[in-house]
Give the backbone structure.
Amino acid sequence: QLQASGGGAVQAGDSLRLSCAASGGTFNNLATGWFRQAPGKEREFVAAIRQNGGSTFYADSVKGRFTISRDKDRNTVHLQMNSLKPEDTAVYYCAAGYPILSTIRSVNGYRYWGHGTQVTVSS
């Protein structure tokens, strides 16, 4: 089971750190991704990290501002979001699974999903 937390309402330029905790299992053998969904839009890829804290992947819209990382000791994956923009406003979801390289940016690449956490950025 995945539990996302850390969302909130902030001003443009502020930072937030989202966390995704796994219970009843471990992230060590799973790739973990963050996706987001704004009202009226499809769920979109934000960032992912391969198994065992390997390669990371980012959407172009967040590259250089967001960082995904894995805390193995706490069985948690974080998404550090800096320089937030109003267009980052969305419900953020964490997901885990066994995506291959061609599906690591796709919702179809993930088997397990957590409930979302709302991020609201005002200008």
In short: The two ends are 34 Å apart (CA to CA).
